[in-house]
Amino acid sequence: MRTSIAPANRILIRQGGVTDLEGVLRVCEKHSEYWDGRLPSEMRLSDYFRRALSSQDEVFQFWIAEDGHGLVLGWEMLAARSADPAQRRLTGEATTCLGKQSGPLGRTLATHAIRHAVRTPLQYLFTQVPARDTLMVSVLEAVGYQEVGVIPRAAKAPAQPERLEFVYVVDH
């Protein structure tokens, strides 16, 4: 018996580009609760992601997860954690953002970044998630990240919620 997956149920992960900016921002809007309902200004957010999408190299990349119709479902960004040239290629900052709360999509994106990191000089991937984001905490633990710390809630505006920091040790 032959089965096929409907196009809308397929997930494609591909490298993103500046043309994906609108979809990336749309996914961010769906996650505004993690900024306590206050997204950074649209202009700053747009500039930030435009730079991230246009400054990719062989190590630090930005991936888009889309359905069979080209709708952006989520994204994963691997960025430099340090500006220090000696450390720049050893540690990365991984960020996963899901338009719909989906553990399987989160695991797929996080695993994609880990597999990429194995083919690079990176030794560690770090990420931070709001402590209340139990879905992403479980996703990170499922793919092998280890919790290494708690960053307390910021008191000054714009207040940030308590965040958990995780690390993944890249095996080569």
Topology:
Blueprint: E1 11-15, H1 21-30, H2 42-54, E2 62-67, E3 72-80, E4 91-98, H3 103-118, E5 124-130, H4 134-142, E6 146-151, E7 163-169
Parallel strand pairs: 4-5
Antiparallel strand pairs: 1-2, 2-3, 3-4, 5-7, 6-7
Please summarize what this structure is.
Helices cover 28% and strands 28% of the residues.
List segments where confidence is low: pLDDT < 50 over at least 5 consecutive residues.
1-6
Spatial gap, N to C terminus: 40 Å
Structural class by sheet pairing and helices:
alpha+beta
Radius of gyration (Å):
16 Å
What name is given to the CATH topology? Answer: Aminopeptidase
Strand content: 25-35%
Number of helices: 4
The named CATH superfamily: Gcn5-related N-acetyltransferase (GNAT)
Give the tally of β-strands.
Answer: 7
Largest sheet report: 7 strands, mixed
Tell me the domain tally.
1
Choose one word for the global shape.
globular
| Strand order across the largest sheet | 1-2-3-4-5-7-6
* N-to-C SSE string, H for helix and E for strand: EHHEEEHEHEE
How helix-rich are the residues, as a percent range?
25-40%
**Overall mean pLDDT:** 87
Instruction: Identify the CATH architecture.
Output: 3-Layer(aba) Sandwich
